Each structure stands twice: as structure tokens, then as C-alpha cells.
């Protein structure tokens, strides 16, 4: 007796007849694939004919000759307040110290809570519309509550935290009090916005890094991360000033010092990590520490990534390399696809070695590697049954997608975020036909046009131009 056909599983959405780049363990790509979604989860991925037999969809999108489906991208380092609404104002020829201390920090200090809300909303909109569904904030938010409120209305996934540093630089500073205040702030935000329950938005210890955190703060942040299951993010060694500081004060370089105090590990993501020696690279690899490369910032800020950076060596030793777009005033859009393109070429050229950072390796950096560093590899970063339904439809009805021969090469070298047609986060369609479904874009743009110049005026800055603006 022939067994009856299995009863199809009810699902909310079926996308069929699409190119699907799964980023699963086998890195399978389906030329005529389907993905089925129920609630916030992926139910099935595979050949269209096979998936269609398994499910009974409430809605079907036929992607024939139109869409490429990828996991949502993960941006592991972005400043979402301050810089998005003052983008382009920093002079193009500012060195690292001038950029940070004479431009960025003053504009951060001049923003209001309302400015931070606008800036965070603008950053989230730009990320979502260019295919990023999850981000890790860089650690420079001043007013966390209004930022969380604003982000909750955008539909994006993120891990973020309030600006945290504690080192006493002035003789009159009370070091113990500064550390206690910083630790209290980390603990308070962890209690207010916990990871418990797998929320879209939650907090981490977001240390400014460089030389701004004492050993006590590093240890407390590490203990809090272990207790809560959080990650930690911090800037480190973008400039020779960081290793020089630690050599002078601790007798060893920055990464070596972090290893000695027990701060390294899979919970930690260090951003930039350019000025390292071989010992530091080995320590990062042995500890499982994640490294976030921000190639566009490195180029615009003349950080020396191509001349000094040991990213090929890190990759060879198995360091989990992920990508970030950093801040808009470093010349960056929040389009992670642009960062992927730059990463694919930088070290090929600087080392004259075309085997470095293939398109396949770079797409891993923007998806599954980023999910690992964000402590979410079990739920996002690839398209697999049981994972969260965070995914992107790239529009093939554009010149850069015709003809489609090698989908990974074209994602990295031909396409960018402007071709993102639709985006889902946790099963919710947050971008549809190039527009946010949750954000009033025209209203946001009008408010940002007013807020940006006002922040610069309060900071006492004028926007320089080498050419006359009439």
C-alpha cells in the first residue's frame, strides 16, 4: 500500500524560483531555489520543487529571473549616533588624531537626545535599505534610552551600549570613582535591556577601547559578558599610539596585555587591530578573539591597513574576521556591500597576491563570521531551517546583475546596497520595493537636514570646502 503524501506544513511566506545563497555549512547555492518562512523562523530551504511539496503558503513570491536571496548582512562596527547626521563634515585631509579629537568627539558632545534618536533612525534606515539586518554599535552612544526607543521602531536587529570608559587622565580625576561609575553603567544597561528572551535589541559592554579603559574595567566587562552571554566590543590599535601606550605603561603591546589580564576570547570583538606584531596575531588566533576590519575607514583615515595590517596572516591562522562600516564622518556609507568590495581588493593589491580574500571568503566575513562575532551564529548569518528569518532580496532587474554567471562574484564585485529590493528581519518585511515599511522616510530626511547643521553650530564648527560654495 502506497503511503499517503505528507500533509504540507502551513507557512506564512514562500519565495520560489530564486537564486539562493545559503551560507550554510556546505555553502550551498540554489539556482532555482525556494525559502519558506513561518513566524520568525525559516522552515525550509532547497530546490523549488522540493520545498513547494513541503509547504502550504499564505503568500507566495515568484522570483523567477528577478531576485537573488542572501542572509541579512551583519555590520560588526558602526557609530549610529552623531556621525550619520554630520556626515561629510570632517576635512578629507585630517589625520587620525585630528579626526577624532578635533572633529568627532566635539560633535558627539554637542548632540542632544533627540539628535541621537534621529541619527540612530537614519543609520538603521541606511543599513536596512542596503541589506544589513543586524549591527553591533561602536560604543559612542550617550543617551541609550531614546536610542533604543528609536531603533525599536525601525525593525533592525542590534547589540549596542552606552559610551563606557574610565581611565583617569587628569591629575584631579578620582580613578576609583570613574571605574565604579563605568561598571555601574554597564550593569544597569544589562539589567534594563537584557539578552534574555532573544530580543531584537539588547545591550553589551561597548568599551571605547584604545587606552581609555583600565584593567579593572576590562575585567569587570569580561565578567559581565560571561555572566550574561554578551559580547564585548572595543577599538584597538588603529594607530601606533595604542601599542605605544601599553608598551610604556605595561611593558608589552596592547593585545599581549589584554591576553595577560584575561580579556581575550570568543566573546570579544576588537575593531581595527591594524598595528599588531606576530605575537599579537598568534594570541588573537589562539584565544578565538574576533577582529572587525573597517576597510573604508582605514583608507580614508590613512590608518595603514594595507601597509601594516596583518589581516592575511590573521586569516591564515583562523582568526574570525568580520566587517564594519564605522562612522559616516570617516567617509563611509553604512552599506556593508561596499566594505565587502573594498576588502576583496585591498590585500590582493598591497601584497600582489590574487589568492587573498576571495569573494567567497569576503561574503563569509559579511554574514556568518559577523553572526559569530555578534554571538548569534546559531540564529542568523545563514539561511537554514530553524534559524531566524533575516534575509535580503537583491534585485536582478538591474544592469550590474545581467547576465548572472557567478552569483558570489557578482555580489562582491558588481552589486552594492542600491540593488537591495526587500528585506526581512525576524520574518517581518521591513523594506519593500526599496522603501522602509516602518519609517517615514521623507519626514526623517527633513528633520535630519535641520538637525545636522544645528549640531555642528553648537560644536562651534563650520564645514570646510576647498572649493567655493556659492
Automatic annotation (TrEMBL):
Report the source organism.
Sphingomonas hengshuiensis
Tell me which family the UniProt entry assigns to this protein: Belongs to the metallo-dependent hydrolases superfamily. ATZ/TRZ family.
Q: Which residues form the Amidohydrolase-related domain?
A: 68-430
Q: Which UniProt keywords apply?
A: Hydrolase
Q: Is Ligase a UniProt keyword of this protein?
A: no
Its name, as the record gives it, is: Amidohydrolase
Record lineage: Bacteria, Pseudomonadati, Pseudomonadota, Alphaproteobacteria, Sphingomonadales
Q: Name one GO molecular function term.
A: hydrolase activity, acting on carbon-nitrogen (but not peptide) bonds
Amino acid at each position: 500500500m502506497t503511503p499517503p503524501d505528507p500533509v504540507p506544513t502551513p507557512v506564512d511566506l514562500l519565495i520560489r524560483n530564486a537564486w539562493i545563497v545559503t551560507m550554510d555549512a556546505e555553502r550551498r547555492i540554489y539556482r532555482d531555489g525556494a525559502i519558506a518562512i513561518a513566524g520568525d523562523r525559516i522552515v525550509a530551504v532547497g530546490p523549488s520543487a522540493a520545498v513547494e511539496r513541503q509547504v502550504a503558503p499564505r503568500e507566495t513570491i515568484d522570483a523567477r529571473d528577478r531576485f537573488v536571496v542572501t542572509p541579512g548582512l551583519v555590520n560588526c562596527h558602526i557609530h549610529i549616533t552623531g556621525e550619520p547626521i554630520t556626515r561629510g563634515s570632517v576635512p578629507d585631509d585630517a589625520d587620525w588624531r585630528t579626526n577624532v579629537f578635533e572633529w568627532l568627539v566635539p560633535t558627539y558632545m554637542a548632540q542632544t537626545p533627540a539628535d541621537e534618536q534621529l541619527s540612530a533612525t537614519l543609520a538603521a534606515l541606511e543599513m536596512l535599505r542596503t541589506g544589513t539586518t543586524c549591527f553591533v554599535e561602536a560604543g559612542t552612544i550617550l543617551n541609550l534610552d531614546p536610542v533604543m526607543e528609536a531603533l525599536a521602531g525601525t525593525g533592525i536587529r542590534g547589540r549596542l551600549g552606552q559610551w563606557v570608559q574610565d581611565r583617569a587622565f587628569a591629575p584631579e580625576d578620582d580613578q576609583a570613582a570613574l571605574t565604579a561609575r563605568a561598571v555601574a553603567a554597564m550593569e544597569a544597561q544589562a539589567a534594563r535591556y537584557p539578552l534574555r528572551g532573544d530580543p531584537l535589541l539588547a545591550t553589551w559592554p561597548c568599551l571605547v577601547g584604545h587606552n581609555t579603559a583600565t584593567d579593572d574595567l576590562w575585567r569587570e566587562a569580561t565578567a559581565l559578558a560571561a555572566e550574561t552571554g554578551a559580547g564585548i566590543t572595543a577599538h584597538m590599535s588603529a594607530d601606533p599610539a595604542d601599542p605605544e601606550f601599553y608598551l610604556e605603561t605595561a611593558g608589552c603591546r596592547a593585545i599581549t596585555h589584554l591576553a595577560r589580564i584575561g580579556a581575550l576570547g570568543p566573546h570579544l570583538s576588537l575593531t581595527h587591530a591594524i598595528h599588531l606584531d606576530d605575537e599579537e596575531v598568534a594570541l588573537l588566533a589562539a584565544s578565538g578573539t574576533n577582529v572587525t576590519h573597517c576597510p573604508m575607514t582605514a583608507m580614508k583615515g590613512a590608518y595603514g591597513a594595507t601597509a601594516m595590517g596583518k589581516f592575511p596572516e590573521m586569516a591564515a591562522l583562523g582568526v574570525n574576521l568580520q566587517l564594519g562600516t564605522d562612522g559616516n564622518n570617516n567617509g563611509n556609507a553604512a552599506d556593508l556591500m561596499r566594505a565587502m568590495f573594498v576588502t576583496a581588493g585591498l590585500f590582493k593589491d598591497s601584497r600582489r597576491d590574487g589568492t587573498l580574500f576571495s569573494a567567497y571568503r569576503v561574503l563569509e566575513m559579511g554574514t556568518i563570521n559577523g553572526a559569530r562575532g555578534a554571538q548569534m551564529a546559531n540564529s542568523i548569518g545563514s539561511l537554514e531551517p530553524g534559524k531566524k528569518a533575516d534575509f535580503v532580496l537583491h534585485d536582478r532587474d538591474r544592469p550590474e546583475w545581467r547576465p548572472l554567471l557567478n552569483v558570489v562574484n557578482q555580489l562582491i564585485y558588481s552589486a552594492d546596497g542600491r540593488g537591495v529590493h526587500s528585506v526581512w528581519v525576524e520574518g517581518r518585511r521591513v523594506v519593500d520595493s526599496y522603501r522602509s515599511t516602518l519609517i517615514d522616510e521623507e519626514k526623517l530626511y527633513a528633520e535630519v537636514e535641520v538637525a545636522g547643521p544645528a549640531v555642528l553650530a553648537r560644536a562651534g564648527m563650520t564645514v570646510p570646502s576647498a572649493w567655493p560654495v556659492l
